[in-house]
Automatic annotation (TrEMBL):
Transmembrane segments: none
Lineage: Bacteria, Bacillati, Actinomycetota, Actinomycetes, Streptosporangiales
Descriptive protein name: GNAT family N-acetyltransferase
Record has Magnesium as a keyword: no
InterPro entries assigned: Acyl_CoA_acyltransferase, GNAT_dom, Ribosomal_N-acetyltransferase
Length: 172
């Protein structure tokens, strides 16, 4: 099945809500409680969920919306930044490699359309499926982030991954 990325359409907003604010859609590692149900709509009306500091793209598996990828700018110096990225795949599409391919596509997109040298992603230390997906996508595990995330009433360790422009060039 062909995986592609496309901008968010207005009709996708309920799908984004399902994947970010519905415990049945978020998955074990993405449920952070309820949020303002209009936040995606406001951002979509403002800039289509694509801005200079980050964005969201829909993961397409053929003709079906399978999830989304997102990224945001993080400053790494007075004038330098890198992209921090993430994704959520809908429950019915998990475990099929769609997330791995979507991460590859997003990294290529970010390196092709910005001068940034680094893209990073992190996940909870117990999210082994996401760690495998990041490694398959070409990311390098950098280390453990102790107590870096708070979810479900507990502080949790994370794992940081990165890819630099040279890594992508080596893969071709």
């Amino acid at each position: 099945m062909t995986i592609s990325l496309r901008p968010v359409k207005e009709d996708d907003l309920p799908f984004l809500y399902r994947l970010t604010d519905d415990p049945a859609g978020t998955g074990d590692f993405q449920w952070y409680g309820f949020h303002n149900p209009h936040r995606h709509r406001r951002r979509w009306e403002e800039n289509g969920l694509l801005g200079d500091d980050g964005g969201i793209l829909i993961i397409m598996a053929g003709d079906d919306a399978a999830g989304f990828v997102s990224w945001h700018k993080e400053m790494s110096g007075a004038t330098l930044f890198h992209w921090d990225m993430g994704l959520i795949v809908a429950p019915e599409f998990r475990g099929k490699g769609h997330g791995t391919e979507a991460q590859r596509l997003l990294v290529r997109y970010l390196f092709d359309h910005s001068t940034v040298n680094r893209v990073q992603a992190s996940t909870e230390i117990t999210n082994l499926a996401e760690q495998r997906a990041l490694e398959k996508a070409g990311f390098t595990r950098e280390g453990v982030l102790r107590g870096a995330g708070f979810r479900a009433g507990e502080w949790r360790d994370g794992v940081l991954y990165s890819m630099v422009r040279a890594d992508l060039e080596e893969r071709g």
